[in-house]
Design a protein that fits this description.
- By secondary structure, this protein is α/β, with parallel strands linked by helices.
- The protein contains 30 helices and 19 strands.
- The strands form 5 sheets. Strands 1-3-4-5-2-6 form a 6-stranded mixed beta sheet, with helices on both faces. A 5-stranded parallel beta sheet has the order 10-11-14-9-15, with helices on both faces. It has a 4-stranded mixed beta sheet with strand order 18-17-16-19.
- The chain starts with a helix and ends in a 6-residue tail after the last strand.
Length: about 625
């Protein structure tokens, strides 16, 4: 079987069988406004893993008519590398018969335009270049790098470059190669049609994982020599894995190569500073990826397994009760981390049902903090803003020709920038019915096309939708069984939402009202937050007696509004008084303790909270401190 040149070169080094052939010498116009890729390509190393694409380019160049090829692909996928490989094979005589020995020239259009200030001067330069090209009678191949930029330049300068080069493009005597970013052309369909009329499109996609590893292994020696480091094989594997999974905005193999290159540079700097042995491993690659993506390092190093096994307890540190909801969310996250879930759908899709103040939004926040160590990783959209049909375009961006076309969508832009996030769609029942047509595609296929024609990946997002639909049954049937309550609630849900929408949701979870004991636990959580704030800002410790805790739980309990009245009570009775003490100067940094207690009466039966500073007899309700629970009567 005949072996391809690129694989032969990789395994055996530089071949002695191939020798540079004679190729054309460029004239003055092409030397001034072009770059001789043929001479540069002779000194380059062979391209790995793109033999099929290179042969497809040769096929187009050998055509009888319309032998102009447009290499289309995302930025970083290797379009320019394919052209250099084509030029290298032509220069070494390993290209097909009829192409070996041809020169390859890249026209630098920016140099052509630079300095052409007088009217007609740019046209004169372009015509001179075209005439010189025609004089080579097919012994040259022209290259236009970034063809959309050339067309944009035409509209700015007022010179139609494609028309002036038309004599070159229309006749098969001078083959032409061009590159274009597929993401950019997707935004300009008319420009894409114009290019397809004169060029044969060759699509270049991201290489598969084994091919990326082959490319990284080929480049590894160059990176090691440049930085003076040693790269472990695990670093290449990790760079390919992290780039494919997390660096969605950049294409492989460039994203993996950049990740490995910067990890080597970082290791080089650390080694030079500490005078230590410089080796690049999986941890160094993950550290760079963590900086680029904002995803915690332990997540990238798969050190979260033990934490995920105990996920329910971690979530319950912030969410009181709601065992069914917490368990469902935890199971979905573990399925994905174990790679047992459907890879074509989001991590999980949930519909949270229940009255206000029972922890629906708090569970979403807790999950964002747990998975990404940052609540900002939660994309929250209030669906009451999309009650009218014309407002729906704001989610994905306006279509071409409408106002705001270039601004993107509120939902799609947020997920495109942070594909690993929690998407919270609040008060879903208030949205227009057309919104659910968009959600069907997200829930089923894990993707959505925005107004610019870009496909947004939702496969790494957790979709959480909340609704108050049927919540009156949860409040009214306080003594009924959970099954009876769920039956009544689901009857309202089925009347509100279409079956095809409900059928695509992973879990529909009913949040039950909070009891008095659960409200006491919410007191502890809210007070603990205040503890941490005061300790960090003022170095103060606030002691909360059980009587004060019971007083807050009794006064803050409301069967209809859940935990929200408690938050307002703590803000009024503790935070406001503490803030007043800070402003009045009675609270100073530097340590100390403050006791919060009930002045008169038993807990929940009258009285008021008082705040006492340590070491004084006077009680001043305006003095703040950090909250720590103590035994009753013991400061």
């Amino acid at each position: 079987m005949k072996r391809s040149w690129s694989l032969f070169s990789q395994q055996n080094g530089t071949s002695t069988a191939a020798r540079p052939v004679d190729f054309p010498i460029l004239g003055p116009q092409l030397r001034q406004y072009g770059c001789d890729l043929t001479r540069l390509a002779v000194e380059t190393r062979p391209l790995i893993g793109r033999d099929i694409e290179v042969m497809e380019v040769f096929e187009v160049l050998l055509r009888w008519r319309h032998n102009n090829a447009l290499i289309l692909g995302r930025s970083g996928v290797g379009k320019s590398s394919v052209i250099v490989e084509v030029a290298r094979r032509m220069a070494l005589g390993t290209a097909p018969v009829g192409l070996s020995g041809r020169g390859v020239v890249e026209l630098n259009m920016r140099t052509l335009v630079a300095g052409a200030s007088m009217r007609g001067q740019l046209e004169e330069r372009t015509v001179a270049v075209v005439r010189e090209l025609q004089g080579y009678h097919g012994s040259l191949v022209i290259v236009f790098d970034d063809l959309p930029a050339l067309l944009t330049m035409s509209s700015v300068s007022g010179v139609d470059f494609l028309r002036l080069f038309g004599s070159v493009l229309e006749y098969a005597e001078t083959p032409t190669l061009a590159t274009a970013d597929s993401d950019l052309l997707r935004e300009q369909p008319s420009l894409k049609r114009q290019m397809e009329a004169q060029f044969q499109v060759i699509q270049i996609d991201e290489p598969p994982h084994p091919q990326v590893l082959e490319m990284l292994a080929f480049w590894m020696k160059d990176i090691e020599a440049h930085h003076g480091v040693s790269i472990a094989p695990a670093a290449c594997e990790h760079a390919a894995h992290l780039a494919r999974r997390f660096l969605k905005a950049r294409a492989l193999p460039n994203s993996a190569l950049s990740l490995l290159d910067q990890a080597a540079a970082a290791t080089r700097l650390i080694g030079d500073t500490r005078n230590a042995y410089k080796i690049v491993g999986a941890e160094q690659v993950a550290t760079v990826a963590a900086r680029w993506t904002g995803i915690p390092l332990q997540n990238l190093l798969n050190e979260e397994a033990a934490r995920l096994a105990n996920l329910e307890n971690v979530l319950h540190q912030r969410v009181v009760g709601q065992n069914t909801a917490v368990a469902a969310v935890a199971n979905a996250v573990r399925r994905v981390r174990a790679r047992l879930a459907d890879p074509s759908r989001p991590v999980g899709s949930f519909l949270f049902l229940g009255p206000t103040g029972v922890g629906k939004t708090e569970l979403a926040r807790a999950l964002a903090t747990l998975l990404f160590q940052d609540e900002a990783a939660m994309v929250r959209i209030d669906m009451s803003e999309y009650m009218e049909r014309h407002q729906i375009a704001r989610l994905i961006g306006a279509p071409p020709g409408y106002v705001g076309y270039d601004k993107g969508g509120q939902l799609t832009d947020a997920v495109r920038q942070r594909p690993y996030s929690i998407v919270l769609l609040d008060e879903l029942e208030k949205a227009h019915t057309d919104v659910f047509n968009l959600l069907l595609q997200i829930l089923e296929d894990g993707r959505l096309t925005d107004g610019l024609g870009q496909t947004i990946d939702f496969r790494h997002a957790v979709i959480i939708m909340t609704s108050n639909c049927g919540s009156q049954h949860i409040v009214e049937l306080s003594d009924a069984s959970e099954e009876e309550v769920r039956t009544r609630v689901m009857a309202d849900v089925r009347a509100q939402f279409k079956p095809e929408f409900l059928n695509r949701i992973d879990e529909i979870i009913v949040f039950h009202r909070l009891g008095r004991e659960e409200i006491r636990n919410v007191v502890d959580i809210q007070v603990t937050r205040l503890q941490e704030q005061l300790a960090a800002e003022y170095g103060l410790e606030l002691l909360l007696t059980p009587s004060a805790r019971d007083w807050l739980a009794a006064r803050g309990y409301d069967i209809e509004y859940g935990a929200r009245p408690l938050k307002r009570l703590i803000r009024r009775e503790l935070e406001d008084k503490l803030a007043l003490g800070v402003m009045a100067g009675t609270v100073r940094s530097g340590g100390g303790r403050v006791l919060v207690d009930v002045e008169t009466g038993k807990a929940g039966q009258g009285g008021s909270l008082v705040i006492t500073t340590e070491g004084t007899q006077a009680r001043d309700p305006s003095i703040p401190s950090r909250v720590v629970q103590t035994t009753e009567g013991t400061p």
